Amino acid sequence: xxxxxxxxxxxxxxxxxxxxxxxxxxxxxxxxxxxxxxxxxxxxxxxxxxxxxxxxxxxxxxxxxxxxxxxxxxxxxxxxxxxxxxxxxxxxxxxxxxxxxxxxxxxxxxxxxxxxxxxxxxxxxxxxxxxxxxxxxxxxxxxxxxxxxxxxxxxxxxxxxxxxxxxxxxxxx
Length: 173
Prior knowledge:
The protein is mainly alpha-helical.
């Protein structure tokens, strides 16, 4: 203490400053709150409409809660056989595609990890160029057509099996 006055430690003063709420902080929180509301409200609106069983669904305006709680729309959708069949095919495609992608990328990357592989640098350069310059939609269509996979589920899985980026990731692993 100097002449009866307490000396405030610098850390204590900084800690006290950090706990204060400034006008800038309040404005920032309000802006973030508005962004969150703008982002979440469309999803909430769709949920409210899906749970509303009244004729008020077609009335324009802000709806925060359903007028009449009803699960009829969900019963109709969940009893729709095509939805479940499509869901099953989506799972089948993801599982098969993931398995084949991992297998093909590992089979391609392993030989490239060996230093004594002939033409290793040329192969890596070729892969790198294909990673930078994509073929586009038309070459993918032609590939599927010439391989005879039109209107099959293989057309959704096979063209994406080998990826230059994934080969580099596996190779570096």
